[in-house]
C-alpha cells in the first residue's frame, strides 16, 4: 500500500537548503540532549565541588557514552530502512519497520540496563576510578542505567521521526525536558542538598518524560505511520536488515567511546584536577560532535529517501554538498571556540589549575575538528 501524502520529503528542492533546514533542528536537539549531562556537570561542579564534577563526568560519562553510543549506531539501521520505505512510498514496509524498531529498542534498553546496573562497580574499578570518587560515580551510573529503556525509546522514536523528514518534534520535546531537568537539578542539588544523587534523579525523570512524548507523537500525530503498542513485535527479516546496516555503525561509535574509556583510565591516574579538566573539556568538545552529528543524521536521511526514490544523482550531489557545509561549520567552530577557551572552562569551575590543564587539552585537539567531517558524512551516506 503506497504512502499517499509526504509533507516531509527530501527528494525535491534545492539540496543545500533542504539539508540545512533539516540539520538545524537536529543540531538544536543534540544541543538540548547534551545539556542533560552538561547541566548536571555545571550544577555539581559549581555547587558540590570538583570531586562531584569528576564523579558525574569522568569514568561515569565514558561508560554511559559507550552504551548509548552503541545503541544510537544500531538505530541507524532503522533510520535507513524507514527512510527508504518512505522515499519508495511503501506504507506496509513503514509500519512493519516501525513496530520492529520500537520492540527492539525496548528489549535492548531493558537487558542492557540490567547488565549495566550490575556491571558498573567492576567497570569503574577496571578504569582505576579513585576511591574517593567511587561511591558517587557508581550511584550516578547505576541510576542512569536503570532508566536506559527511556533513553533507547526516545532515541529510536526521534530517529524514526527524522527518517520521515520530521526533525522539529524531537527538538521541541528535548527543549521541554531539558528545561525540566534544569529545574530538577537546581531544586534537588541546591534546595535538597542531594549532590550527585540529585542530578541523577533529575535526569532520569526528564528522560522518562521525553520517551513518553515521542511515543505519543508516533501514536497520534504522524499521518504517514501510526504506532500501535499492541502490534510491537520483532520481525526477523526486518530486524536482521536493520542490524546488518546498524551494527557496523554501532561498532564504529563504540570504537570512539572505547578509546575514550582507555584514555579516561589513564587520566584517572593523574588525579582529580586532570579528571575535572577532562570532564569540562569533554562537555565543551561535545558541542562540535553535536554539530557534526547533525550533518551526519541529515545526510543519512537525505540519502535514504532519495535512494528509495531512485534519485541516485541527487544522492551523490547531496553527499558532497553536505560535506562542504560540515567542513565549513567545523572550521568556524574551531575559530570561535579556541580564543574563548578560558571563559568556557570557567563556566564549569573556578579552580585555576583545572582551567590551565583543560586549555592545554583544547589546544591539541580543537584545531583538527574538520578532519572528522569526512568520516561522519561519508559513513552516513
Structural description of this entry:
By secondary structure, the protein is an all-alpha fold. It is built from 14 helices and no strands. Helix 1 packs antiparallel against helix 8. The protein is globular, with a radius of gyration of 21 Å. The chain starts with 14 loop residues before the first helix and ends with a helix.
Main attributes of the structure:
14 helices, mainly alpha, 381 residues
C-alpha Rg, in Å?
21 Å
The total count of helices amounts to 14
Q: How confident is the prediction overall: mean pLDDT?
A: 82
Secondary-structure content class: mainly alpha
Oligomer: single chain
Q: Overall 3D geometry?
A: globular
Question: Alpha-carbon distance between the termini?
Answer: 27 Å
Q: Let me know the largest β-sheet.
A: none
The percentage helix is over 70%
Number of strands: 0
Give me the strand/helix succession.
Answer: HHHHHHHHHHHHHH
Strand content: under 5%
What are the low-pLDDT stretches, counting only 5+ consecutive residues below 50? Answer: 1-7
Short synopsis of the structure:
This protein has 381 residues and is mainly alpha-helical. The chain has 14 helices and no strands.
Amino acid at each position: 500500500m503506497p504512502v499517499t501524502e509526504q509533507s516531509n520529503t527530501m527528494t525535491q528542492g534545492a539540496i543545500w537548503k533542504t539539508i540545512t533546514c533539516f540539520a538545524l533542528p537536529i543540531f538544536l536537539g543534540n544541543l538540548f540532549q547534551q545539556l542533560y549531562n552538561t547541566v548536571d556537570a555545571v550544577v555539581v561542579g559549581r555547587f558540590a565541588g570538583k570531586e562531584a564534577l569528576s564523579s558525574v563526568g569522568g569514568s561515569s560519562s565514558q561508560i554511559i557514552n559507550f552504551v548509548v553510543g552503541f545503541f544510537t549506531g544500531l538505530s541507524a539501521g532503522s533510520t535507513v530502512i524507514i527512510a527508504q520505505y518512505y522515499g519508495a512510498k511503501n506504507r506496509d514496509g513503514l509500519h512493519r519497520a516501525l513496530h520492529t524498531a520500537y520492540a527492539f529498542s525496548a528489549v535492548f534498553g531493558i537487558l542492557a540496563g540490567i547488565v549495566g546496573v550490575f556491571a558498573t562497580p567492576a567497570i569503574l574499578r577496571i578504569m582505576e576510578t579513585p576511591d574517593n570518587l567511587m561511591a558517587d560515580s557508581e550511584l550516578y551510573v547505576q541510576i542512569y542505567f536503570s532508566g536506559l529503556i527511556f533513553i533507547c525509546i526516545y532515541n529510536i522514536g526521534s530517529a524514526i521521526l527524522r527518517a520521515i523528514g520530521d526533525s522539529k518534534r524531537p527538538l521541541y520535546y528535548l527543549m521541554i525536558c531539558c528545561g525540566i531537568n534544569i529545574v530538577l537539578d537546581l531544586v534537588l542539588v541546591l534546595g535538597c542538598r542531594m549532590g550527585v544523587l540529585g542530578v541523577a534523579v533529575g535526569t532520569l525523570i526528564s528522560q522518562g518524560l521525553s520517551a513518553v512524548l515521542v511515543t505519543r507523537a508516533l501514536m497520534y500525530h504522524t499521518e504517514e505511520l501510526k504506532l500501535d503498542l499492541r502490534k510491537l513485535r520483532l520481525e526477523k527479516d526486518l530486524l536482521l536488515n536493520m542490524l546488518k546496516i546498524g551494527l557496523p555503525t554501532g561498532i564504529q561509535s563504540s570504537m570512539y567511546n572505547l578509546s575514550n574509556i582507555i584514555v579516561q583510565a589513564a587520566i584517572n591516574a593523574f588525579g582529580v584536577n586532570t579528571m575535572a579538566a577532562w570532564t569540562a573539556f569533554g562537555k565543551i568538545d561535545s558541542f562540535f560532535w553535536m554539530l557534526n552529528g547533525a550533518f551526519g543524521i541529515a545526510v543519512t536521511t537525505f540519502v535514504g529517501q532519495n535512494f528509495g526514490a531512485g534519485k541516485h544523482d541527487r544522492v551523490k550531489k547531496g553527499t558532497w554538498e553536505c560535506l562542504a557545509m560540515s567542513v565549513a561549520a567545523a572550521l568556524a567552530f574551531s575559530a570561535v571556540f579556541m580564543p574563548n577557551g578560558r571563559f568556557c572552562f570557567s563556566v564549569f569551575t573556578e579552580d585555576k589549575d583545572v582551567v590551565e590543564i583543560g586549555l592545554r587539552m583544547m589546544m591539541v585537539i580543537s584545531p583538527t575538528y574538520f578532519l572528522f567531517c569526512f568520516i561522519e558524512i561519508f559513513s552516513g551516506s
